[in-house]
């Protein structure tokens, strides 16, 4: 059996590793420059900056066991900081917050090791032919034939790909609401003298602020702060230029501090599909229709932990199907 996985975020990588461990061939495609989805890090002259997912949690014992393996491999560490609500300084819920080290993308790099991964490849078409499913790139090039397909890309992208091969799954993907997020990294001329390292502003355009150097294995100088706009502000201003966004959010950060920070450089990134606020919470952890499956945070509960569970659940379903059909492992 040969499986195509579209999307190399946490769900896609978890599925591919589970399939590989069972001896089933899995080929992963992602349109990005590297794996990780929203855990990727932005390369700058000041090093990598985590402009996407800031941390994750592990609440389920099965996922906690996997996280322990990641910690033993040196790619994940707990972040000792407890964020506060701003400006009230009320501590957020105490829990273990985890980060990839030395950058968030390190986790995806670890998970992708040894996989048949193809980056900077944008799948634009999935068609059913007599010999199985055929994937084509946007240039029209055929990527190969597969027995089954697993989509782990964000819901809107999955919906577009599913319109022809599975209108039923396309409809389900359309029901998963994903919100955008503008993210900005502020490189400061000198460190801020503030009594917090991370926080959730309770009003205004900012939804998250964090001192990058407060997280393990990050440099302290130059001091860099990460700003995330709220979903509402990001959606209302999604087509602004990165320059306009970074200037506006830097001003909002100064207003929050009650003094403008001395900024050396600003770096902005637009995440069109950042948060799965309308996650489907699928009972099985995946969606399925006629040899096409969907998995990811939008299928489960919107969290990194949910994405991992969803990818693993979809992979187990594919392994079970292979065992029932008697398909040769590894493909032919």
Task: Sum up the structure in keywords.
Amino_oxidase, FAD/NAD(P)-binding domain, Polyamine Oxidase, Chain A, domain 2, single chain, alpha/beta, globular, seven-stranded mixed sheet, 332 residues
Give a short overview.
By secondary structure, the protein is α/β, with parallel strands linked by helices. It has eight helices and 20 strands. The protein folds into two domains: 2-53 and 104-177 and 277-325, 3-Layer(bba) Sandwich (FAD/NAD(P)-binding domain), CATH 3.50.50.60; 179-275, Polyamine Oxidase, Chain A, domain 2.
Report on this model:
This protein folds into two domains: 2-53 and 104-177 and 277-325, FAD/NAD(P)-binding domain (3-Layer(bba) Sandwich), CATH 3.50.50; 179-275, Polyamine Oxidase, Chain A, domain 2 (Alpha-Beta Complex), CATH 3.90.660. Helix content is 28%, strand content 30%. The protein is built from eight helices and 20 strands. Helix 1 runs parallel beside helix 8. The chain is globular.
User: What is the H/E order?
Assistant: EHEEEHEEEEHEEEEEHHEEEEHHEEEH
Which spans have pLDDT < 50 for at least 5 consecutive residues? none
- How do the strands of the widest beta sheet line up side by side? 7-6-15-16-17-14-18
Mean pLDDT, as a whole number? 95
**Proportion of helical residues:** 25-40%
Number of individual domains: 2
Outline type? globular
Our Rg estimate from Cα atoms comes to: 21 Å
Can you tell me the CATH class of the largest domain?
Alpha Beta
From the coordinates shown, what is the CATH architecture of the largest domain? 3-Layer(bba) Sandwich
Largest sheet: 7 strands, mixed
């Amino acid at each position: 059996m040969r499986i195509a996985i579209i999307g190399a975020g946490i769900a896609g990588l978890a599925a591919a590793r589970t399939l590989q461990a069972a001896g089933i061939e899995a080929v992963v495609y992602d349109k990005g420059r590297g794996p990780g989805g929203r855990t990727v890090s932005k390369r700058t002259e000041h090093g990598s900056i985590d402009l996407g997912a800031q941390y994750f949690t592990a609440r389920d014992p099965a996922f906690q066991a996997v996280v322990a393996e990641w910690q033993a491999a040196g790619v994940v560490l707990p972040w000792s900081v407890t964020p506060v609500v701003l400006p009230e300084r009320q501590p957020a819920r105490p829990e273990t917050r985890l980060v990839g080290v030395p950058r968030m993308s390190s986790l995806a790099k670890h998970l992708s090791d040894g996989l048949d991964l193809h980056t900077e490849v944008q799948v634009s078409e999935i068609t059913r032919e007599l010999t199985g499913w055929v994937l084509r790139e946007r240039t029209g090039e055929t990527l190969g034939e597969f027995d089954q397909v697993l989509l782990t890309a964000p819901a809107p992208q999955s919906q577009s790909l599913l319109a022809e091969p599975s209108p039923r799954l396309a409809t389900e993907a359309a029901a998963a609401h994903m919100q955008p997020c503008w993210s900005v990294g502020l490189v400061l001329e000198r460190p801020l003298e503030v009594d917090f390292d991370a926080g959730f502003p309770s009003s205004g355009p900012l939804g998250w602020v964090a001192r990058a150097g407060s997280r393990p294995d990050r440099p302290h100088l130059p001091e860099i702060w990460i700003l995330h706009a709220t979903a509402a502000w990001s959606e209302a201003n999604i087509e602004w230029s990165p320059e306009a966004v970074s200037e506006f959010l830097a001003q909002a950060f100064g207003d929050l501090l009650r003094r403008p920070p001395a900024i050396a450089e600003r770096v902005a990134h637009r995440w069109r599909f950042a948060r799965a606020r309308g996650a489907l919470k699928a009972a099985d952890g995946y969606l399925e229709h006629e040899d096409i499956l969907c998995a990811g945070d939008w299928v489960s509960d919107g969290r990194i932990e949910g994405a991992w569970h969803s990818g693993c659940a979809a992979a187990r379903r594919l392994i079970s199907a292979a065992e029932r059909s008697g398909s040769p492992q590894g493909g032919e």
